[in-house]
Amino acid sequence: KTTVKLAAELEFIDAYAEIHKERLGEAFHLEIDVDESAEKKEVPPLALQLLVENAVKHNVAVKSEPLVITIKSLGDKL
């Protein structure tokens, strides 16, 4: 499949983030603030997973300076 609903991608990202939360504890936070209308849009599969993975891989995440990743919709943009 070349695209998936954003809602499905966000569910996957939430589950993927749980793995990092288990490993990093309070040093990792994922915030999702997406309008319901945006959740119906189509996105490439695993597009968000790649971004989250790179953020975790290329940043330092410690309790005193946690890595905070925010995914939100702004009009037609994600």
Quick gist of this model?
By secondary structure, the protein is α+β, with helices and mostly antiparallel strands. Helices cover 38% and strands 21% of the residues. It has one domain (4-72).
Number of domains: 1
The assembly state of the depicted protein chains is single chain
Radius of gyration: 13 Å
The residue-averaged pLDDT reads 94
Number of helices: 2
Helix content: 25-40%
* Unreliable segments of 5+ consecutive residues: none
Largest sheet, order of strands side by side?
1-3
Through-space gap between termini: 21 Å
Name the beta content range.
Answer: 15-25%
N-to-C series of helices and strands: EHEEHE
Q: Biggest sheet, in brief?
A: 2 strands, antiparallel
Query: How many β-strand stretches?
Result: 4
What does this structure look like?
With 78 residues, the chain is of the alpha+beta class. It has one domain (4-72). Helices cover 38% and strands 21% of the residues. It has helices at 6-24, 47-57, and strands spanning 4-5, 28-33, 42-43, 67-72. The strands form two sheets. A two-stranded antiparallel ribbon has the order 1-3. Strands 2-4 form a two-stranded parallel sheet. Helix 1 runs parallel beside helix 2. The radius of gyration is 13 Å and the shape is elongated.
